[in-house]
Amino acid sequence: MVQTKKDPVLAVLSLSGGNDGLNCIIPRNNGFYRDSRPTLAVPEDQIIPINDEIGFHPTMGPLKKYWDEGKLAIFVGIGYPTPSYSHFRSMDIWHTCEPEIIGTEGWLGRATKQLDANSENVLTAVNFGRGLPRALVMDGVPVASVGNLETYGLLTGIEGENQRNDALDVFGRMYAPAIGTGAVMDYIHQTGTDALKGADILSTAPDKYTSSVEYSNTAIGQYMKNIAQTHLAEFGTRVLYTTSPYNGFDSHANQAQANAGLLTDVSNTVDTFMTDLREHDASDNVTLLLFSEFGRRVIDNGSGTDHGAAGVAFAVGEHIKGGVYGTYPSLEPSKQEEGGNLKFNLDFRSVYSTILEDWFQLDAEPIVGGNFERVKFFA
Amino acid sequence: MAEQDIALMAHLMRRAGFGANRDEIEAKATQGYDSVVKELLNPESQEAVEEDLLIRYNPSYFEAAAIENNVQQWVWRMINSPRQLQEKVALFWHMIFCAGHSKIDSGQEMGLMVNIFRQQGMGKFDEILLALSTNPGMMYYLDNTESHKANLNENYGRELLELFSLGVGMDTDFNYSEDDVKACARAFTGWNIAPPYPPFPHGRSPWEFRFDPADHDTSEKTFLGETGNWNGDDIIRIACEQPATARFLARHLYNYFVADEPQVPAWRLTPPRDQSAIEAMEKAYWESDHSIKAMLEVLFTSDFFKDEAVWYQKVKNPTEMVVSLLRMTGEFRGYQPGLFEASQEPKYMGMDLMNPPTVEGWHTGREWIDSGTLVERINFASDLLGNTELEGVRSLVNRLMARGDKLSPEQFVNGCLDLTGPVVLFPDTMSQLISHATQEGELSHGTDAEKTDFTRRCGEMFQMIAATAEFQFE
């Protein structure tokens, strides 16, 4: 069990589209890798070594720093049985922990319900981006979903500060509990009041924030900045979630250039985020998880790669016990998943279970729907 | 023209279509209620969408594989199709016959499925079910492609009974047994698709329905008390003869077009909100040989539909919220670029079109609203309705100005409410808006400065109306 000075917080960055694990954590001495990737194999002298077998993509230098500090967990061969090659379905599986049936509740929605059983804080979980990812969906759990923290709020289209404040006053009164309007109306009034409260609190975060670090001017950079701002504002938020631009990692074509840009952005942003939190002495109680819905096909298609199975994921934080978890899947054709993909050996629900139990101190089983072997990646 | 006629026409257009702008509502009110209902029920009497032009302006819609293009094309039709009830009915079936892109993974298949609902949705129910049961996307989504003579998969057989025809039960009784489910599934063995594999990892190819006699269970089956060597079409025939099916359809129609009912799984134990309305639609089903159009005709011409007691008794679903506002403000009429972002709005509000969360579909009514979706709904509605640069909003401002050289705060608020709905507010909400308007006093529009101020105040008032709890209903 991990001891943090303040309540533990989980931040999640979902890499949407299927991040190519093979060109992210690269099996650098593997002959099958070079044979399978005539177009996309990264020259060995450019790979940043992790150990004798694997190394980082050349653009991931900023992450290497956390590896050297022993604060980075690398999950290889991560996935689940009977892989789905559909972005939507596979992302759903990661969100709901339901590979067999179509689930409606998200693992972090369930976790939030346990972290704040009486919904006392409307900001226990906050998502950055438009629309709620299914990971955060759970009946009765209020989750704020913030498109842009700088402008988040209600009635943001009203120009002039006084006019808008007047309008928000009217809004507050219009949504005050009303008598004799019916159950559905009562519920909407309560929800409107919660939303206004959440927006009021959240909108103070950017003003409270000062920092010497500069986040990249990309969607990933700006949303991670919003996550840092919200964390530093100490609203009691325990789950912070964001998703990279939709299907950005879906590199069927021109992968070499596109992925170098994406991995640069992700690595720099993780470094900026950690540096920012450390500068504010606020990194102790944060774990950052990065995952993608699947890896990609072993053999490249001459320009990019198609949808695959097992991939890679990462956890960064002060309480992480650095290391490689899971076994790098064999690239030998006879040992691949049907269709030329890597076979998983580390179930993502093992990683979730460890986070839920060792980090949040919750009972993982009902949240991930089963008992999965824990991966001891917390120090 | 009587205000009451306009209000009733606005109600009809909200329910039988995706709302309308003020000019259209007034024109239709002049045309007369019964005549408009007749047009709605006979889409072929209305102009069709010009398919060639649609594709010419939007080449990306043509046989589009991407789901976004199919969703966008549908939203375009909802905004622009003169055959409004046809699109509303397509959405009705999409919310019942739920299959989703998350599994099917082909936007084109989803578009084809919705087109069946569009083309056949008001027809004979037996034929709708047959079209559904031979739709490749649905057969794959509910695993009928995995159901074999030697190795039965009950998924489609069960959902056909539970969600697509009889429903679990009525008047507290159960409608079918587990043996009926098995018999039903056995009758649908061999109802498969070609090519058989899912689109990945072998690449996409269009699907078609294929009946495989060698994989069809030809043994005798007893289904709902009738014994024979039933095939899928026999099952559909027998299911459509069940009183439970008429009841299930009538309740769905009421829930979608008239007033929110409890969620579907509660229907076995919860009596209908309006029993006689349900019975009137059931009667139409039997007398018309299972015609959905006949049920809709009873619905739209009946007193139970026109009754003010059911106005605003439905929480707008996200698609209705988005499309009705676009129609009211005149956005994306014709072939304008930029529809992609607007077509994603229902998803931000919790309704990912062509991708329902499960085969049970979306939970409706108050369950559309949570603290995240409410913010999306309010901001979308108020940004659009408060934007006095938009042609549709501009015309509302002009209409308000035409109501008099000077408007008292009460006249102003009432005018704004009338033109944006008419929207009906609870007295508490009303008094908040009036007291807000009173702070800035009377409105006039003689000078340019007064005009500017009048316009600004209209925009703000429209935004606040769009932000009310009452505006969440239709």
Task: Name a few traits of the molecule.
A: 379 residues, Alkaline Phosphatase, subunit A, nine-stranded mixed β-sheet, three-stranded antiparallel β-sheet, B: two-stranded antiparallel sheet, two-stranded antiparallel sheet, 8 strands, elongated
How many domains, in number, for the residues of chain A?
2
SSE sequence of chain A, one letter per element: EEHEEHEHHEEHHHHEHEEEEHH
Q: What spatial order of strands do you see in the largest sheet of chain B?
A: 1-2
* CATH overall fold name of the largest domain in chain A: Alkaline Phosphatase, subunit A
Instruction: Give unreliable regions of chain B as ranges.
Output: none
- CATH first level of the largest domain in chain A: Alpha Beta
**Total number of strands of chain A:** 12
What global shape of chain B is seen?
elongated
